[in-house]
Each structure stands twice: as C-alpha cells, then as structure tokens.
Amino acid sequence: MKKIEKKFYINIIRSLPIVFLYLLVLTGFDLSFFYYDINFSFNFVYLIIFFFVLKNPNTLSYGLIFLAGIINDVVQNYPIGISSVNYLLLCAIAAFVRSRMILPNLFYDWMLFFIAILIVSSVNYTVLTMVFEIPIKYGVLMFSSILTALIYPILSKIFNEKVLLILRSEND
C-alpha cells in the first residue's frame, strides 16, 4: 500500500508544472501592480516554461506548451498563434542552452534567461506591431521583461529545492 501512495504522490508532483502552467494561462494571470503610476508586471509563464525545459524537459512537452499558447491567445484576445510562437521560441532557446551547458550554474541560467526574454519580447513586439498593427508600448514590454528576469533566481531556488528534488529522488 505504501508503494502505491508513493507512486500517486510522485505523479502529482510530476504533473504540477503542467497544472501550474495551464492555471496561469487559463486565468490570464500576470502579477501586476501599480506603484507611483508605474505598472510593474511579471510574466510567470515564461519563467515556468524556461525553467522546466532547461532543468527537466520531460515534465513539459512542446505540444502542451503550444496548446497553452493557443489558450493564452484566446484568453488575452491576441491573434491566434502569437503566444505559441513566443513560447516555442523560448523552448528552443532553453533546449539549445541545455544542450550546450556543461556545468549548471544559476548565474548563467539567469543571464541566458534574460537574453531569451529579450529575444522573445522583441519578436513579440515586431510581430504584433508590424504584422497585425496592434499598438504596444515598447517601454512597458521591456520593463516587464526586465522584472521577469529579475524574479527568475527566486523562483529557480524554490523550484530547485521543492520540485526538482522530488523528481530526482524518483529516478533513484
């Protein structure tokens, strides 16, 4: 009986990133608040996707990420496929970094996440303004990207200590 309970617990932990990703996408949740008339916002979906594709790629498949992007487009009222392209571009960058990285380091992950966010935000801005002619304030987009990159080490520490530790112990 104890083995069945352990297997059930491990399956719950294994599906936690998927549930968390879809919960964020379905609710359209971006933590944003105003402080002295400045909008501070973080994009947690980028954090979840980059971290789990980089550290444990078996938890999130590209098909699930693509579907999450389609759902995000419907919820956020964007043209269908924009978020999917952004998410898959972020996945491609994380997969490239994972294949080239010899020794994992939080600082390198953080800097590469910042570069990936800048690339994804630039593609997002270019496609939405030039192709679909949707007005976007580039300053707000860049400020949001920088704040998202600044929050990465905190969430990385939390995910490393809680989720990845349990997933690694499962393989032993």
Structural overview:
The chain has 172 residues and is mainly α. It has one domain (14-37, 51-167). The protein contains six helices and two strands, in the order αββααααα. It has helices spanning 2-27, 44-55, 62-76, 82-100, 106-131, 138-171; strands spanning 31-35, 38-42. A two-stranded antiparallel ribbon has the order 1-2. Helix 1 packs parallel to helix 3, helix 3 packs antiparallel against helix 4 and helix 4 runs antiparallel to helix 5 (106-131). The longest helix has 34 residues, at 138-171. The two termini are 20 Å apart.
Secondary structure elements and pairings:
Blueprint: H1 2-27, E1 31-35, E2 38-42, H2 44-55, H3 62-76, H4 82-100, H5 106-131, H6 138-171
Antiparallel strand pairs: 1-2
Helix pairs in contact: 1-2, 1-3, 1-6, 2-4, 2-6, 3-4, 4-5, 5-6
> What does the radius of gyration come to?
17 Å
Provide the number of structural domains: 1
Distance between the termini: 20 Å
Uncertain stretches of 5 or more adjacent residues: none
Helix content: over 70%
Mean pLDDT equals: 84
Form type: globular
Largest sheet: 2 strands, antiparallel
Structural class, judged by helices and strands? mainly alpha
Number of helices: 6
N-to-C SSE series? Answer: HEEHHHHH
The order of strands across the largest sheet is 1-2
Instruction: Please report which band the strand proportion falls in: under 5%, 5-15%, 15-25%, 25-35%, 35-45% or over 45%.
Output: 5-15%
The counted number of beta strands is 2
